[in-house]
Amino acid sequence: MKKSCFLLSFVFLICFSNLTVQAQKSEAFTHKVKEEDVAATLKYLSSDELEGRETGTAGIEKAAVFLELFLKNNNIKPYFTSYRDTLSNFDAPAYNIVGFLEGTDPVLKNEFVVLSAHYDHIGLEKNKQGDLINNGANDDASGVTAVAEMAKYFSQTKSNKRSILFAFFAGEEKGLLGSKSLVQKLKAKNFNLYAQLNIEMIGVPMKRDYLAYITGFDKSNMAGKINEYTGKKTIGFLPKEAEYELFYRSDNFSFYDVFKKPCQSISTFDFENFEFYHHVSDDFKAMDIPHMTHFIQELLPAITQMATTPTEEITMTK
Length: 318
Prior knowledge:
Keywords: Signal. GO terms for molecular function: metalloexopeptidase activity. By secondary structure, the protein is an alpha/beta fold. The chain contains nine helices and nine strands. The chain has helices at 2-30, 35-45, 58-73, 137-157, 177-188, 222-230, 239-243, 252-259, 289-306; strands spanning 77-78, 84-86, 95-101, 112-118, 163-169, 193-199, 212-214, 235-236, 263-267. Strands 1, 2, 3, 4, 5, 6, 7, 8 and 9 form a nine-stranded mixed beta sheet that branches. Strand 7 (212-214), helix 6 and strand 8 (235-236) form a beta-alpha-beta unit. The longest helix is centred in the N-terminal third of the chain and has 29 residues, at 2-30. The chain is globular.
């Protein structure tokens, strides 16, 4: 009798766990990312008003205010005493914008998933006539927009058992300064990082049989796990990424360098589909809003699973 009760309890537990996972996937798939919301955020962040968002300027200050208000309106709390995290390695006032959504599980909430993008760009052209503003729509207002939509999704669904840190970095274009500054503060707080997913330049689609590529493809099993979670060939291997060692050239590396956990960037810029890198023509009208919306929508089930699996399924491989 005791053995039968144990078996029934075990079967019930498995069924309940499966139902929970299916409910989480269903929630992610039924949540609809709206093109008009994606367009509105991207359009403002890449507008002339922000003058290219160079770190330490009045333009990036406007972007900071916008992101603070976005997080507040979506009930994402500040991680520190305010949303502003002052850079410790820049000679003028400059800020990361950092929000925090506590996990719903009493144990897993002590682990963190970090979703991030850099909101700075290179500012104004010097000694040039005509268009002087490097609006940085693809680099990286597109990534910021994606992370903002992900923050909105989790604030509405409360589907994260792990806690999530939403980080918008300044100083990336100055040498990853914002992320380098933040990781030192997190390390001092004994921050328990599970994984970081950094979004970098997703404003235009690739002509490939996968949606996006990941930097440091073979350093962890993150690519395979994302594809498993989405049920699609979402992430593929881009040889140019390995050739140019992009893993070391974006804010994911600052986190990997300190925490030695899976910390990688996802991008759809493949060196063939966009010719305006660090160019004044990297502006809103060059962006593909339906593609960006689709990208965010397809990633939601994967990120939901990252934030809810009972064990740490994403691990380093080398």
